[in-house]
């Protein structure tokens, strides 16, 4: 177990002009995954003498876009190494996920054809599974390798509203304890399910949002504190009488950022059900990924207008946080709720445009590599 | 090989009042599948001594609704028999298919909870595959049992427009020959893919629209001829100058109804690639399923208004045929095209309402049971 943080910062130059809006908004998440390629290559146990079927899974995949290049690289490496195993990859997410878009991308019917690995490589079969990853998703001992990125900070249920903030990382003691307990139960359930699914010797590599050795986490890495700003601006709407106290409270992210110790605990405790099920810790470390939008703004060296920067930064935050605020207003007329949410994000944009220093959405991940005992 | 048709007619009384619109429209297709349960039970090789994973597939599944009760019954029977194998079922269809609805149904989040077998039974795992069934969809020799209902009459491409009719079953000789050749090539491709996927001893049960010993097929079973009426009413729009000759021609179903001999040919010909790949014919027979709407109307014995009957019959036809006519008008303004399609189906409804005798959409299926040599 490596304690020192590894800097998995962006490799190569990010062009904000190229690529689609979606790709831009998820550029940071994609970089983190691409940098995990060595761990995936190792987990696949590439060997020209191997036969049969390699069964892998991508847990909490969304539309498959952020991990597609990594899988394409991993499978291309496997084929280039003379490993001829047939590959069955199953993407998992909730039933409501857009699996059609995912299937089209892998077949080269949408997106970048150069990474449409199902079409570009021989013997790759792609499936979807619409059941949540807190459940066992594969028959016992049939999975060679599992992967999950930026997905398991979501809890299976909201233990309580956070009444003094919007995020558990800044909750008061009693409310924080309830989130921590739910996160502990969820993580053990996730690991028990993976322990049952994995073949002996099979690995599970997990890149999760978490809290690193320096106490840093997503959007809280030394400069402005993103979740504090979310909370302050949301509270301002309450204090101005625009939203109710109940609507303020209900804007609670159903997320928990675990520490490295919390991730490791059930894997190291020999009395835990997870340990007894045979899942072991191979490696764990934190990674820091600089916000591509902030970096681009910094590298522009004054040539970029702060408003333009704000207009790139806020959408990346909004893409994953908006539903928390809009669902807090679910008792209202939809148009009225939408106007309030627009006002909320506009106020954040204005804040950044007026004084851009320190605003960023840097990523902090805890990487956990696990193996089922042989 | 059994040549005599077996009457898989409706068992039990169909209540048109109960159930949702969707269920009603697909009632006939569902009955055909439910009646195939004995063939599925046999194919699953239920055995309390079996271990490991039972891998099955439902090819061309749509939203999984028409086969859900059958699978629920089959898997319940398996469990009740003491067979504890973990079950991995993969539903396949085109990438554009609504897999979300399918996943919700199996988990009991939508539809009838009594047949939500993923929730109701232990050890059942559900997956989707968004690649067409003309391709190999599973690694070599890994599938225990394949099933497909009312899907493989669709061809992988349209070989030509049918200029004198809308359906290949009534096409002129030259155009019919092009459809027959495409259907032959597609069927061989489908069977070769299944031969590769199946385990030795594994079975593939296929219920396809086809032409029976008496020359009957869907909507052409002795009374009014559905496809002839489609063609006559579509030609009437052309003759009235409402659609162009080109638009008339383009309303061509990309379908072919194979005869029993055409289904059997590559399985019986020892020189064929399919035979060489080890796929063998176990059984084949035709089934006739009376149109539930016509039966309901007949059983009402004059108590049902012909217009009411027409208003139940036409939607079941329209549900699967509408896109053929609307896409023939794709060069027009969408609203204008929709109005023409409405007029077309309205004219069919009027025909039925004025003289209901003989109108029906009886189903004719060719059932083919195949096995991979052990």
From TrEMBL, chains A, B:
<keyword id="KW-0479">Metal-binding</keyword>
<keyword id="KW-0460">Magnesium</keyword>
<dbReference type="InterPro" id="IPR029063">
    <property type="entry name" value="SAM-dependent_MTases_sf"/>
</dbReference>
<protein>
    <recommendedName>
        <fullName>SAM-dependent methyltransferase</fullName>
    </recommendedName>
</protein>
<dbReference type="GO" id="GO:0008168">
    <property type="term" value="F:methyltransferase activity"/>
</dbReference>
<dbReference type="GO" id="GO:0046872">
    <property type="term" value="F:metal ion binding"/>
</dbReference>
<dbReference type="InterPro" id="IPR005299">
    <property type="entry name" value="MeTrfase_7"/>
</dbReference>
<dbReference type="InterPro" id="IPR042086">
    <property type="entry name" value="MeTrfase_capping"/>
</dbReference>
<dbReference type="Pfam" id="PF03492">
    <property type="entry name" value="Methyltransf_7"/>
</dbReference>
